[in-house]
Amino acid sequence: MKYDILIIGGGASGLLAAYSAARRAADEERDLRICILEKMPRPGRKIMITGKGRCNFTNVKDWNEFSQHVRSNSRFVRSAFYTLPPEKLISFFEGFGMPAVVERGDRAFPASYRSSDVVDTLVNACHSLGVKLETEFEVSGITTGDGTFKVEAADGRSHTCSRLIIATGGLSYPGTGSTGDGLRWAEETGHRIIPPFPSLTALVPRGYKDIGAKGHIPRETPLSASGAELCGIQLKNIGLQLLVEDTVAASEFGDIDFTDGGLEGPAGFQISRKAVKSMLGGSRVAVSLDLKPGVGLTELTTRIKELWDEIAADPRSRGVREKERCRILLGKLMPRELIPAFKSAHPEIITLERRGRADTKVWINLVSIAKALKDWRFEIAGYVGWERAVVTAGGVSTDDVVQKTMESKLVPGLYFCGEALDIDADTGGYNLQLAFCTGALAGYSAARL
Fold first, then answer.
1. Which CATH number belongs to the domain containing residue 264 in this structure?
2. Which of 202, 241, 435, 436, CA to CA, is 20 to 30 A from 308?
3. CA distances (Å), 280 to each of 243, 270, 382, 404, in order?
């Protein structure tokens, strides 16, 4: 089949690219043949798992604030952002019958909190303008010549077009179809590829898994005893520091989760990009948790001593051993489910003094407890890789792409958008907004006369 525009990839950027191209053609009363080629049985597979199925599809911050959360090439995406800013994206969805709600952190979700509604709305929008969607079309190769592109499938099918948009995503969550094909095709046509690496992924503390390996540690690797003590615990409103070669490289405040993968959650994800990049560069990486970020060490130490005295003076403490009093104290300072892991990680908080063969005194080191609460240190052994990384850092170099059109500087008629590009951002709706707006700009530009 011969088309005017082919889009490879039916994810966030590809669907918006198709709609944007078809919308421009309709507004200008032109008839363009547009087709999306998706290798999976259904489009939008990665959208479906975004935000644990709730789909935080954008963030409504203005550009000045939004750009602070873009971790690579923020200037490059400025034109795309203004082509489809968050409020315009929300209006698009609402115009097709999907209302949105905005929550803490300026994060926008479908009012139903169902990611399937986002996918269905995008597909319906494309179909309303005559866009063809061809699923289970696994592209095996692309050839160019005489101003046309020939796209061939593994099963022998082929299509041609005069303008081609690569919206294949990166390498994260390969089960959704993102296997880096677009990067390979871009490289074959002379584009520079910034080496990709996992971002917004779980960091694996040393000893958390039953494995001595470094670097990529598969998520399915069994937990160690210490990992099992922590797995499932969520900590809110804590301080977090990333240490690279013992120097503070990043600081965050927020929530973290200990999962079967490692250290995750919003604050954990924020530091993961720099942590993974540092590890790939051969640097030692550690994470420090501050469970009491609102008070200094001196004030906290004083408060702990006061609590200890209150426990000792409580009539219910008569006859209670020191170790049990320590457990009661820790219960006043942290979630009870965290106590076993905290004690295991900090044996220095309890000291045994032998006074004779049958006489042992137990000392609770209150200062050590305060220090551990302010600086619970985890050496990082590795990270979960592409199988569960939220986003890909790296990709097609933005130096090879025109920022005002998303067209290649090397191959006329070829466009890139979304995660295939070397653009990535923090968690919180920023990455999907980048996918949508770069897709919208690529589609609009490809539909030019």
1. 2.40.30
2. 241
3. 15, 17, 10, 33
Distance between CA 194 and CA 277 in Å, rounded? 13
Q: 136 and 10, same structural domain?
A: yes
Q: How many CB atoms lie within 10 A of CB 410?
A: 13
Do 76 and 215 form a contact (C-beta atoms < 8 A)?
Answer: no
The parent domain of residue 328 ranges over 297-370
Q: What is the pLDDT of residues 376-393, one digit of tens each?
A: 999 999 999 999 899 999
Is the separation of the CB atoms in 387 and 393 below 8 Å? no
Beta partners for residue 132, in sequence order: 35
Whether the predicted pLDDT of 356 surpasses 80: no
Do 183 and 211 lie in a common domain? no
Residues 289 and 140 in one domain: no
Residue 435: give its domain's CATH number.
Answer: 3.50.50.60
Q: Is residue 135 domain-shared with residue 10, that is, in the same domain?
A: yes
pLDDT (tens digit, 9 = 90+) per residue, 242-283? 999 999 999 999 999 999 999 999 999 999 999 999 999 999
Is residue 384 within 8 A of residue 204, CB to CB? The reply is: yes
Between strands 215-216 and 376-383, the pairing is: parallel
How many domains are contained in the chain? 3
Residue whose C-alpha is closest to residue 170's, from 406, 416, 441, 430 = 416
3-state helix, strand, coil in the chain (%, to 5): 40, 30, 35
**Residue 235 and residue 228: Cα distance in Å, rounded?**
16
Specify the pTM: 0.92
180 and 95 within one domain? yes
- Segment (H or E) for 97: none
**How far is CA 89 from its chain centroid?**
21
Domain end among 383, 410, 429: 383
Region 111-138: mean pLDDT is 98
Exposed e or buried b per residue across 77-87, where buried means at least 16 C-beta atoms within 10 angstroms of its C-beta: bbbbbebbbbe
